[in-house]
Design goal:
The protein is mostly beta strands. The protein has five helices and 35 strands. The strands form six sheets. The protein has a 15-stranded mixed β-sheet that branches. Strands 2, 6, 7, 8, 9, 10, 15, 20, 23 and 24 form a ten-stranded antiparallel β-sheet that branches. A four-stranded antiparallel β-sheet has the order 26-29-32-31.
Length: about 500
Amino acid sequence: MIASGALLLGQVDAARAFVFDDVAERARTLASQPYAPIDAPLPLELKNLGYDGYRGIRFDPRKALWHDRALPFELQFFHRGNLHTQPVTIHEVSGGSIRRIAFDTHDFDYDSRTGLSPQAWGDLGLAGFRVHYALNRPDYKDELVAFLDASYFRALGRGQRYGLSARGLAIDTIGRQGEEFPNFVEFWVERPAPGARSLVIHALLDSPRAAGAYRFTFQPGDDTLVDVRVRLYLRAAVGTLGLAPLTSMFLHGANQPRAGDFRPEVHDSDGLMIATTDSAGRAEWLWQPLLNPAQPRVTSFAAGEVKGFGLMQRERHFAGYQDTEARYELRPSCWIAVQGHWGPGRVELVQLPTSNEANDNIVAYWVPERIPEPGQPLDLTYRMHWQGDRQQRPPDGWTVQSRLGHGLVNGKQGQHEVQYVVDFDGPALRRLPADAAVSVVVTGNASAVIVERNAYRNPATGTWRMTVRVDRAQSSPPAELRAFLQRGNSVLTETWTTIIPPG
């Protein structure tokens, strides 16, 4: 049975507005009680629907919430079925009034070829929802954001196509216990005013070891901004608490070409970018190109204070992909700009092997050094930037492209040598005189021996190219490299970093 909002939340005083603390109190109460999964069986004919059958169920746009009110935002809803079995409760909030949005078969068009019998189902609840807004042209409301399954959601800026996803929370993404996927179980969507440029959505998260309250404020535009406020409570201890998690796909790219695929690159994101400060307040920007590894790989980046991180799609040209259907050059980057002080911790990057582009195999999130005790609140705020051609970048210089090959000396290749060719661009590099002396600062762990390093201006593009040749032992642990360009004592670029597997 799916409970109503009044029962789950308690009555809200009609004389005041619905606020974040209402949801936070519900999360605190949930975390103090044993976990109780939602009991909402699904008819077998819906559970056994294939992919094509599920796509045959379509929400009628004329039934969208607020469609008849000429408001700037509208909501359409996802049907339960196929892989989307978990129900969510969705409410409309208007002033002090809360109204649950009921499932109604008349809101959906059912393909007659599926042979479904909606009249026998009753109130199934809804699987999720999507928000529509006139993002790209004034006479048509495009899809702006979608919430569907667990705590996943994804958003778009102007001219973008869906790519990577965000999540509310990640628990034990790596480790022996197995990953726990918390669910957004209930939503409260505030009715916008006429002419509003933002939309507020509250969400309640629940899982065996955590409960949480979320407030999302969506501001659509060239870069769609999402201000996020979170208060988490743990029911029990966790191994890894992943905050502001992002999930993406990387199949292959310039740094990892794939034989037999006509497309030079296939990915929703091509790198992880991190901005940190040390105890002295010195800023550092890091860039790690993504990989499709042969074995699962976890990389951590410790920081005394993180300013931001994101999975970015820096390659923005069609020529880099040559895919007329997927249009990977239009997939957004997502930059997490930290609000306030999160304290010490680490950004963790998880890269999993995948054989096709249908599987998300990249996860990145922030892990705080101090995880709260069960029952104690953890508060954080951040702003998400869903970006296209205009992206967050370091202020001075950044990586444009990374390529991997084999180093040759006198026509011979070292048995365990690899060569990286990395192009950098940015204001600090463009300002250099023609005869500037630029050096490569590169470091590696004990598994990597730096054989050669060079930096020179690329006469064809005006960017600067770094080449680094590395010799590594076949049976040693993975080799870590870090490199940046420098002139005198002035750092010109972000720190480019990568991991070289054994072999």
